[in-house]
Amino acid sequence: MNVYDSSRIAEILKSLGHRETTDIREADIVIFNTCHIREKAAEKVFSDLGRLNQIREERLEQGKETIIGVTGCVVQAEDEQIWKRAPFVDFATGPLTYHRLPEILAKISRNKHNFIIDTEFPAEDKFDFLPKNHASGGCSYLAIQEGCNNFCTYCVVPYTRGAEYSRPVEAVLTEAQRLVEEGAVELNLLGQNVNSYHGEDRMGHERSLAYLIRKLAELDGLKRIRYTTSYPADMTDDLIDCYRDVDKLMPYLHLPIQSGSDKILKAMNRRHTSGDYLRIIDKLKDAKPEIGMSSDFIVGFPAEDDNDFQATLDIVNKVKFIQAFSFKYSPRPGTPAALMKNQIPEKVKKERLEILQTLLFDYQNKFNQASIGQTMSVLFESKGRHAGQLIGRTPYMQNLHAKVPEDKLNQIVMVKVTSATTNSLTGSVVGE
Ligand code: SAH
Ligand code: SF4
Prior knowledge:
The chain is α/β, with parallel strands linked by helices. It contains 14 helices and 17 strands. It binds S-adenosyl-L-homocysteine and iron/sulfur cluster. Iron/sulfur cluster binds at residues 148, 150-152, 155, 157-158, 192-193, 231.
């Protein structure tokens, strides 16, 4: 979601006549788009801002001004604190108000000595005000839903991104059509809780993510559909059926479970048990036997004991995730879990994370090794480090490098996998 927001911010700046630079010393405007999900991410912003301030001062000596802005969830959560901790920042906006950047920049150009902060939850829909989303390559993000009403007890998202909102069906379909016309062959539908999508159609009827996927699959030229991130309790049978019926829907699903222990899931306020999760996987496998699962895990949630942690390892051994993200629980100010008793010592969190990651990487590596010899469709998205090499993604989101002519960038090519590591595959082209 943040990658998507950052690209939209870049588009706003381009629409105002600015150009992108890769050399930060050349930049007249620098905007940090920030994440507040864990303490480490949030604190990094302030050390990065400190470094940037030095560059700002060096540029000032050469007579060049630098405008520094901060956007995203850190702003929503820290509000005026940003300015107290980094007084050289010119403006800050939350994740729901960055479409107001043109006004903000205009105000700054009128009076540079004004700190502007905008952390409203606006009445207007930011999607109506953003410049058109353009396909940046073969794979495009398309935001269809924002915010979350789930209030997992550890999570800041409902506070920083606000209440759940679904874009209307027509707006999504029109944008999708344009992205495909501009060359997108894969669409990744985005939302904090994307499978709770319930946008209205022209008749005012609420439509589900399953409906949207079936509609999008009708677009000629679109070859792949993905969506992220999903909430287990919202995995409806209709959505699961799409894996049986819609060939364009990729056989890969990121479905965060967080923990294998029902006691911990309850304390997290997740509306699913580990048994529910396994039943969803059974149905998905029934609909699409070759489906690969990915997940998020939190270790060291308050009161997690050895048995709870073992339950997490057990579920990994049952599901055999092909990829996963795992984190140490990070207490976030203002969330209920931060105030819970029995916070877990850092040392224990670290040990548990290492054990879990070793197991997860083992399954990821096994899956990648099993890919050797298979022919897979790969969407090439960027140039590799070596000349003549491109990097792409398999249907299972594995990174794959191959020697491919550059004109195959942003296209889907059939590739035979020749070798594999835990993090990537290598292959050779066999056809289109
Ligand atoms: N809406 C998505 C995830 C959003 S946050 C979902 O429900 O799955 C992405 C991931 O960050 C979460 O899945 C969770 O694993 C992790 N996360 C969120 N808050 C956290 C916290 N306080 N400490 C550690 N990890 C956290
Ligand atoms: Fe956060 Fe996801 Fe839970 Fe929403 S569903 S509160 S975004 S972890």
